[in-house]
Specification:
YerB-like fold; 5-stranded antiparallel sheet; alpha+beta; globular; 25 strands; 6 helices; disordered N terminus; 11-stranded mixed sheet; single chain
Length: 373
């Protein structure tokens, strides 16, 4: 088992570095009499089973033989985009109430994480490698945000407000650069065509301009396959999914090389009436507990592990995820414990509760949804 673990760790290191994921943690899971120990490559310290390390991720710009790549998408970056990927990530808490649609800016996000809040879900939308103006509608912070955001280095974090306990946690978290409405009030505005609280917009350019020195770009969150690599898993037409009480579907569109997103059976479109179509969709079964700031509010436990469903290149891989510590990226494994890589491009991550994993769409169901696009 130890020899197998060493082989796996070496393979993770080789493939993630080959794809420019210079900050990804090369992790080996060694099963020892029912317990577990985590070993990390290089000079990283050992992480115990409680995951107490607080090592900050490396922040150099990822690169391949073809040149630099965006750390949160794995996509090649041209000279004009180099200043964009040299900046910190911007994470914005975006409303997912039906009254908040269509959204501003989601089509430009490198990474979107859907988490359960009270009843419905909310988006932690991460902007980095693409220029974007208005984003929103912006909503409040949650106590689970700091642990989730730690994998991004020192991200700028935009939120509309919070109760006193949650606001205190956000302001006391050293790896969060708060660009909330109280700190950079002039960057926010409300629009008249929507009713509050679903009408608060953020000028993302103003938020990026408020970044503190030294600037820390995000570390990669996932590893990416080479274009010539064959797809992993089994081909599927799409999935149905529920996070909290918010339902969605993702249907594979080979022409767009992505997963068209639907909400309650309707295309999820941006303000330009273009359907949101991420390149990858990752579903991570996640435990929730009552927030210490408000027992009525669920708090996602984004470290640890659980079941995973990885949708990429029209295929589904069922396996597991692990994230030993808040500073670590998500590590995706197939059913045999082998690392799973995504296709370069934007990724949507959903965090449903245990037992609320996705259902696979039949061919007729997928075709019927696509016909609505």
């Amino acid at each position: 088992m130890v020899e197998r673990g060493e082989q796996l760790g070496s393979e993770v290191t080789r493939r993630t570095r080959r794809n420019g994921v210079v900050a990804a943690v090369a992790t080996v899971l060694l099963v020892v009499g029912g317990g577990a120990a985590w070993l990390l490559s290089g000079d990283d310290p050992v992480i115990d089973v409680q995951g107490t390390t607080t090592v900050a991720p490396t922040t150099e710009v990822p690169a391949t033989e073809a040149g630099p790549v965006a750390p949160l998408t794995g996509e090649p970056v041209g000279e004009a985009e180099l200043p964009l990927i040299a900046r910190p990530a911007l994470a914005v808490k975006i409303d997912n109430d039906p009254a908040a649609a269509p959204h501003w800016g989601l089509e430009a996000a490198d990474l979107v994480v859907e988490v359960k809040v009270e009843g419905i879900s909310r988006f932690v939308s991460v902007f980095h490698s693409r220029d974007v103006g208005d984003v929103g509608p912006v909503r409040s912070a949650r106590t689970g945000d700091p642990d989730l955001l730690a994998m991004l280095g020192r991200p700028l974090t935009a939120w509309s407000g919070a109760n006193a306990a949650t606001a205190g946690i956000m302001r006391d978290t050293p790896w969060v650069q708060n660009v909330d409405i109280d700190r950079i009030t002039s960057a926010y505005r409300r629009v008249g065509e929507r009713r509050a609280p679903h009408n608060l917009l953020l000028d993302a350019r103003a938020a990026f301009a408020a970044a503190e020195e030294p600037v820390q770009p995000p570390a990669p969150v996932f590893g990416y396959a080479e274009p010539e690599d064959a797809p992993r898993g089994r081909p599927i037409g799409g999935i149905n999914l529920v996070v909290g009480k918010s339902s969605s579907s993702y249907v594979w569109d080979a022409d767009r090389s992505g997963w068209r997103r639907f909400v309650d059976g309707r295309p999820h479109v941006d303000l330009g009436d273009q359907q949101l179509t991420p390149r990858n969709v990752v579903v991570l079964e996640t435990e929730y507990r009552p927030s210490p700031a408000d027992a009525r509010s669920p708090e996602a436990r984004s470290t640890g592990g659980g079941r995973a469903w990885i949708l990429s290149a029209g295929h589904l891989v069922e396996g597991s995820w692990i994230r030993p510590d808040r500073t670590d990226p998500w590590i995706l494994l197939d059913g045999e414990g082998e690392p799973v890589e995504l296709r370069p491009g934007a990724t949507w991550v959903a965090l449903p509760e245990p037992g609320a994993g996705p259902g696979v769409l039949g061919d007729d169901e997928a075709a019927a949804l696509l016909a609505r696009s």
